[in-house]
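Consider the tokenized backbone below.
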């Protein structure tokens, strides 16, 4: 496949495909599709999702100050970190939309955790629609963990998590729309085997990212 990588250096370069500004303007519909996948817009639909998992981070290696604790919804301070070190506490769970249990959107508390992670302190209100920032490496890591990624030799890289749980891309797109995007790709000279494979992938986010990656390669051909 054209998206195959043969080295760690190739893997570092591959992430650039998942930056909307790097994609060709040759097919506007495909570029618009890429942007809405890479920068998904979701709605804050409830106050609390009830998660007991959150993101598990290391103390003190992770950049923890300012993140939102899962246990009490308070921001982490230097004093918290000192206390944890003095008491041999080596992990902490934090709030993040990447681990939110709200279906098809996000809860207010996890949304606040995400905003603090991207250094935008504040809290969304119920009903707010938020467009999440693209995280190129997190998308690359998602592909790397799939059958598609393994077959292409993609490697995971150190990265922040996805902006939301993978199932939530089901409210952003669907297979009908992706079939139409694939038909647009057919005009760009994509090899028949690679093109046919795009119609076999069932996972919504995996398929969307493969379409974007394929456009990233052949959009400039």
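A designed sequence for it:
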């Amino acid at each position: 496949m054209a998206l195959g990588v043969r080295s760690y250096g190739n893997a570092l370069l591959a992430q650039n495909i998942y930056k909307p500004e790097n994609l060709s303007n040759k097919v506007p519909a495909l570029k618009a599709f890429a942007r809405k996948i890479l920068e998904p817009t979701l709605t804050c639909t409830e106050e609390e999702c009830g998660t007991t998992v959150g993101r598990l981070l290391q103390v003190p290696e992770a950049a923890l100050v300012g993140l939102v604790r899962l246990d009490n919804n308070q921001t982490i301070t230097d004093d918290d970190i000192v206390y944890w070190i003095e008491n041999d506490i080596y992990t902490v769970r934090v709030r993040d939309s990447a681990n939110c249990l709200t279906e098809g959107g996000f809860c207010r508390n996890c949304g606040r955790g995400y905003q603090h992670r991207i250094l935008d302190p504040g809290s969304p209100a119920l009903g707010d629609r938020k467009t999440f920032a693209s995280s190129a490496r997190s998308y690359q890591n998602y592909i790397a963990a799939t059958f598609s990624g393994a077959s292409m030799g993609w490697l995971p890289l150190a990265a922040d998590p996805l902006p939301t749980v993978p199932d939530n891309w089901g409210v952003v797109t669907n297979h009908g729309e992706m079939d139409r995007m694939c038909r647009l790709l057919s005009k760009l000279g994509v090899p028949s085997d690679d093109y046919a494979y795009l119609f076999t992938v069932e996972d919504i986010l995996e398929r969307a990212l493969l379409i974007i990656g394929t456009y990233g390669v052949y959009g400039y051909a």
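The chain is about 40% helix and 10% strand.
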